[in-house]
Amino acid sequence: MQAAPKVQLDYIDALRGVAIIGVLVSHAQRNVEIYQAMGRDAALSPWLSRYAEQGARGVQLFFVISALTLFLSARKRSGESEPWLNFYIRRVFRIAPMFYLAFAAYCLAPVILKGHALPGIGTVLGTLTFTNGWNPAWLLGANDVVPGGWSIGVEMSFYIVFPLVFLALRSFRAAWMALLIVLAIDLVAWEPLLAHPPIDDADLWARYAFVWLPNQLPIFLFGICAYFVLFDRAGRLTAFFHGGSRAANAAWFAVAAAVLLVVPQWTDDPRAVFAYGAAFALITLCLHRSPYRWLVNAPLRHIGKISFSGYLVHFFMLQVARKLLAAVHAGDRLSPDAYFFATVVIALAGTVVLATLTYRFVEVPGQAMGKRIIQSLKARTVAATT
Questions:
Q1: Coil vs helix vs strand at 307
Q2: Of 227, 210, 184, 216, which is closest to residue 268 (Cα–Cα)?
Q3: What gap in Å lies between CA 230 and CA 242, rounded to an integer?
Q4: Nearest to 228 by CA among 372, 70, 334, 342
Q5: How distant, in Å, are the alpha carbons of 179, 272, 342 from that of 305?
Q6: Are 172 and 222 in contact (CB under 8 A)?
Q7: For residues 277 and 218, what is the distance between their CA atoms, to the nearest angstrom?
Q8: What confidence tens digit (pLDDT) does each residue in 276-310 have?
Q9: Quick check: 88 and 163 in contact, CB under 8 A?
Q10: Where are the alpha helices (DSSP H) in the chain?
Q11: Rounded to whole angstroms, what are the CA distances from 216 to 136, 158, 289?
């Protein structure tokens, strides 16, 4: 296996940038249509509302990219003396510092400064220990601890099982078969799961059944299949997405884009999430072959680089945008569509600025600390053996 030149992996950061913008757009839509940011009931144009709502599928784009890069990193570091211990150290110090800062800002500060009630202790502890992914109340209640915390709970659940997945799936064929099997199970089990909720709150169970790891696992598997196509040996697929026809590559990119354009207007069935996962994986493959500059560019790569911080701080910046627009009475002057776009522009600009700072002063030092711990453990191991 040969590692791809670094410049060819710029599309990974660009896709992360697209993902966080999509998530921000979906929450801006909710601000207008659900949370009455304009000070009154408001509705976007139906076509715009459907597209904006499905910006939430940026989370699934994160999952596809995460699975691909985790496999790439694990294969690269498989020769380490303690690869899985190091894996978990890296993951924890990649996620925890910024996540705990967000907990302090979103949860602790209102409790201390404004007298707000603390969420249930089980929800808080489950969220802070990243063990909330298997309890409906804890996983969805994580949003009361840190906004958007449910998706981080799902991601961390995948980290828990990742060593088993990595060791079990050693080829494209194995990953493809696993994808088909898990996808078939999820599709068949969806309606029985909703029809027979094991808890009293059927609405909570329906939301949980959509977001929990077993239902999201096919999305991760799409990313793993993309990994084997790009960085291992998947026959003609590997050859095509490394050096095949650029025209044919553009056609496949157009097919994936068409899925993303058509599905939101066609259906709101939760099972359509798997079509999004397939489209995201195909776009990833196409961008590896041809990183189109209109998409893989410096601004989007930067937004993607700071996307984890961006995910956590954009909720705050949406509230900032709401207050700024209220100060100029934008709710009285603008149409809902215009108000929505103004919210997106203000919140995105603020998110980029704030997330750049938190990435530099929180995320980077946290990752550096993880590296130092790994190096220290390695040095102790070497000293003990000599």
A1: helix
A2: 210
A3: 7
A4: 70
A5: 28, 28, 24
A6: no
A7: 8
A8: 999 999 999 999 999 999 999 999 999 999 999 99
A9: no
A10: 10-33, 46-53, 58-76, 83-103, 109-114, 121-128, 136-145, 149-168, 172-195, 202-211, 213-231, 236-243, 246-266, 273-289, 298-305, 307-327, 330-333, 336-358, 364-385
A11: 15, 9, 27
pLDDT tens digit sequence for 189-205:
999 999 999 999 999 99
With beta carbons less than 8 A apart as the criterion, state whether 226 and 285 touch.
Answer: yes
- Greatest CA span in the chain, whole angstroms? 75
- Among residues 231, 234, 194, the alpha carbon closest in space to that of 215 is found at 194
CA distance 284 to 61: 10
The SS3 of residue 375 is: helix
Tokens coding 110: 């209102």
Please report where in the chains the tokens 């169970």 appear, as a residue: 205
C-alpha pair distances (Å), 3 with each of 61, 71, 84, 220, 233: 22, 12, 21, 21, 13
Nearest to 55 by CA among 264, 313, 336, 253: 264
Amino acid at the residue 359:
Y
Task: Please give the pLDDT value at position 2.
Answer: 41
| Alpha-carbon torsion angle 74, 93, 146, 301, nearest 10 | -60
Report which residue type is found at 87: F
For residue range 140-195, what is the model confidence (pLDDT) as tens digits? 999 999 999 999 999 999 999 999 999 999 999 999 999 999 999 999 999 999 99
| ∠ Cα 174 179 185 (to 5°) | 125
Q: How far is CA 143 from CA 146, 313, 323, 353, 357, in A?
A: 5, 13, 22, 23, 23
Among the listed residues 182, 149, 183, 181, the one whose alpha carbon sits nearest the alpha carbon of residue 271: 183
Per-residue tokens: 259: 């899925």
Q: Which of 352, 348, 260 is nearest to 27 (CA)?
A: 348
Tokens of 39: 């000070």
